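Quick review question:
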């Protein structure tokens, strides 16, 4: 008689299960994502029955009461902004980021503020002892008795504790340390992470408890474990920035209850993470005066305009193939803009090294900074200084035209508030914007029109 198969293969991206190794996953079509895990018995899978202990009946949409889902504020304005106004009861939120960047510190600060409001919170740590958590808590401030601590990695114990204590918010630090004994694979494996997330999701939805889970990241910057983890949760927050620097950027990449791509800016201090209320002023701190290759642009992060400094350095290359490097933006986008400048403006930049840096450690994918990057590159190439009180934004097409961008009025208002006197923007947006006090609006149709202003 043939023996039962003891191992199966799981896709790390989508969780697809196969009895043999496959080079390409049939589910998500990704290559080399299949990993081998011990097989589990069929009876050990998590039950799909609601943890509320009662069968759910279909409900008419008109009978749903939104008052039962009133958001709970964390009293951290930058975090509330990213979440869309606060924590939604019964939601499952994933917080990811590099080691030491401040994930546990931020969640402990959330527990401190919400416990002071009278909410009952449960902080479950699988990585630190009670004494280690107490040491960090002493640095942050005074805590209320409404915060309960538990150091545990067994998923069964965690599940029973949450059902018994019934907190308003539970924090799991981290999901990669949780394990179910019936599954023979190690903690952090595809099977364990998927099973743990499934149990926590049922607890959150069935009992109406908001659960915040910490996720480790891989060297590529994505959350470790199966990609299905990010699909199961309601909100995904990523910490960005260099852990050795003082600034931290919290970005919402998925949010079922609010806008995506909202950001919150924090500064790491001795007493924990402090909010940076004026992100634009923070990003422009330390901007050099009278230096070529420096241009201020504006990007929209969700509903928030953020002013940032674009630095460019263009110089003759000593090698046959010039070097291009971009920090904070897509390198392919930089190569495209350099090609447009050479073709449409007849600038001989093909034999030049080009380095572009978005100061402040922020990463921007919005094409509205194209015009700022182009002007910074030409400013460095010709060694001409752009006025420090001028802000530039607009998308550049392959024909050299400057296309309109969204929410231009908010960008101009933010620039006016910070004391900028001139704004160079697409002509399509200039005709729609009312004159702001103290700022001159200049509309340009092509990249040549903008470069002529230098």
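Suggested answer, residue by residue:
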């Amino acid at each position: 008689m043939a023996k039962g198969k003891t191992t199966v293969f799981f896709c790390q991206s989508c969780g697809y299960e196969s009895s043999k190794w496959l080079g390409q996953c049939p589910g998500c079509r990704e290559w080399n994502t299949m990993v081998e895990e011990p097989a589990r018995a069929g009876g050990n899978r998590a039950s799909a029955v609601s943890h509320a202990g009662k069968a759910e009946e279909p409900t008419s949409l008109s009978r749903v009461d939104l008052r039962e889902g009133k958001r709970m504020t964390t009293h951290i304005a930058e975090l509330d902004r990213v979440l869309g106004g606060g924590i939604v009861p019964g939601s499952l939120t994933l917080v990811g980021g590099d080691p030491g960047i401040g994930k546990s510190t931020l969640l402990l600060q959330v527990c401190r503020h919400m416990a002071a409001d009278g909410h009952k919170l449960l902080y479950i740590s699988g990585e630190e002892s009670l004494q280690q958590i107490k040491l960090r808590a002493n640095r942050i401030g005074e805590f209320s008795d409404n915060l309960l601590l538990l150091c545990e990695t067994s998923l069964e114990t965690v599940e029973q504790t949450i059902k018994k204590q019934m907190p308003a918010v539970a924090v799991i630090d981290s999901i990669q340390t949780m394990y179910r004994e019936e599954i023979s694979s190690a903690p952090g494996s595809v099977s364990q992470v998927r099973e743990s997330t499934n149990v926590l999701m049922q607890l959150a939805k069935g009992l109406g408890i908001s659960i915040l889970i910490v996720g480790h990241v891989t060297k590529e910057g994505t959350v470790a474990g199966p990609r299905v983890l990010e699909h199961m949760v309601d909100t995904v927050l990523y910490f960005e920035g260099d852990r050795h620097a003082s600034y931290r950027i919290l970005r919402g990449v998925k949010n079922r209850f609010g806008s995506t791509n909202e950001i919150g800016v924090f500064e790491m201090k001795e007493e924990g993470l402090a909010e940076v209320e004026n992100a634009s002023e923070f990003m422009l701190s330390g901007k050099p005066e009278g230096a070529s290759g420096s241009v201020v642009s504006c990007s929209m992060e969700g509903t928030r305009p953020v002013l940032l400094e674009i630095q460019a350095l263009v110089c003759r290359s000593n090698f046959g193939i010039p070097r291009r490097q971009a920090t904070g933006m897509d390198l392919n986008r930089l190569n495209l803009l350099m090609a447009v400048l050479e073709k449409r403006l007849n600038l001989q930049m093909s034999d030049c090294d080009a380095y572009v840096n978005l100061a402040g450690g922020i990463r921007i994918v919005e094409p509205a900074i194209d015009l700022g990057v182009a002007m910074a590159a030409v400013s460095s190439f010709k060694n001409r200084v752009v006025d420090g009180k001028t802000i530039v934004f607009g998308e550049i097409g392959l024909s050299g035209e400057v296309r309109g961008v969204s929410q231009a009025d908010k960008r101009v208002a933010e620039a006016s508030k910070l004391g900028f006197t001139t704004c160079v923007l697409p002509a399509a947006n200039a005709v729609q914007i009312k004159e702001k006090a103290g700022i001159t609006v200049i509309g340009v149709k092509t990249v040549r029109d903008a470069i002529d202003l230098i």
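Why it works: The longest strand covers residues 304-316. Residues 400 and 447 are 6 Å apart (CA to CA).
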